[in-house]
## 1
Amino acid sequence: MFSGRIGQRILLVGQAPGPIEVDQSRPFAGRAGRQLMRWMVRAGFANDADVRRRVYMTAMTTCFPGKRPGGAGDRRPTTREVALCSPWLDALLELLQPRLILPVGSLALTRFLPRARLEDVVGSAFSMTGTELMGSPVDAPILVPLPHPSGQSRWLNEAPRVALLERALARLRELVVWAEANRLD
């Protein structure tokens, strides 16, 4: 599941499509997507359509992994499922060569910063080697991790973490300008 086109310099990587995304054939189409779009507006995008015009969206896995046992939320893809889809994501990264990558949630974070925890990285920007970016970026791609916007996630239930999200959105606002300075479209 993806939406975007060649030339977009910002890549957003989520966990996996949900049933609404599969039904509507576009990433972040459900409730979590509406929350994500509110965040993106706070980061400087005009609206949902503007985000989708400027950001290539995909996920760690391309298929809906199913519901959790008991039906409370979507099941997190297994390591094997992620591994099966990783060649697709690798090829996408090579093709797009994004300047800015937004790993959304802990599963996407493990792809780009394998040993990092959300609370240690949300609010900051990083090189692909995991070095925190202190000033203006020099080399691309730059990573700006975000928590997952799902209502099932309890990550944002603590005020310090909400403050980290606000820092991440402010940093994202700055870096979007840099990322799109050399857009190919």
## 2
Amino acid sequence: MAVSECFHLGTADDVRDLLAWAVAEETPLEIVGAGTKRGFGHAVDARHSVDLSTLSGIVDYEPAELVLTARAATPVAEIEALLRQSNQQLAFEPPDLGPLLGAAPEKATLGGILAANLSGPRRVLTGAARDHALGVEVATGRGELIKAGGRVVKNVTGYDLTKLMCGSWGTLGIMTQVSVKVLPAAEKTRTVLISGLSASAASSVMAEALSSPHEVTAAAYLPEAVTAHSSVAYISGAGSSITAIRVEGPPVSVSVRNAALRELMAPHGEIEELHGHNSGRFWQEVRDVAPLIGEGDAIWRLAVPPASGGSVLDQLGNHAIEGFLDWSGGLVWCAAPADAVNAATIRTLADETGGHAMLVRAPDVLKAEVPVFHPQPETRAGLTRRIKEGFDPAGILNPGRMTGMV
């Protein structure tokens, strides 16, 4: 083998055989699909890489059964284009973070999205990406090819193993094929906008909307400084903060629920709304963190209890750190100067709520100074190590990506 080599693999058997060789030779490998999320985490400590980009294509799609099976490196954009033909969608609204991380748009793969467990604004209603994964074929760090789960919604055999692969960042195995559930796409979308709230007040308002009977499918808050970066004219020209509440579904139902939400939200501030096209553009911006793409040297992602999100964002603002809320306050995105002082502030705020903070985009010098992934309590860290040892005992898969060291 060459000193440094990129292996291009087209079948699951190829992947299994390569991993068997890597185990025998104790040779670490970097796992790459489209490469749109290589900016996440630390640089992998491996001389060889595995290019999975040709491991692509739809294997099976059964609209009536609400299930789709695809090879792991199939672009999400290709899957979504196919689903639109049957008026269906990936309901967890997978984000396209390529541009945020300096990569091209619409290149993210299904396997990459699941490996990172990335979900968009609809998570408040439909759950995380892992909740939509039905089955997986994976080559483990033992050089074995295994299957878990099934291809129909009602089959839950091995479902926990399927979920385990979601959020593993390619450190437990290489997904070669995945099955996901799909759902009907909304016929109509409306977004109710409330102007002028503080982040803390917006958290309460979003909670009120989500606890209403109006089946809210997304709730987000953008401070005035962030609304200015939107490409939606009403949002960028609002001159104030915006709290956004989305409803989707059949036209008659959406009209009724939208009117009821407007009435419910009226006491909290000036009310406007976005219709189909502008509503879609706005939520795509929120999903892809577009308002922060050109902001700050470091981008952070905080997962906190929804009731705490507004307070966290207000406190970040006291440190001149700009950001916004998604998931009704449960997800805080922020842009900050890339230094250890800001990192400590952000991590402390996450810790105080019982949440966690991930450094998504930053110069390598900051990644070398602070943990990229939130440090785990020792009991959880011990469990993580045991799981890693079970799937990848030789430590050949993406070594160092989550820890910065082998």
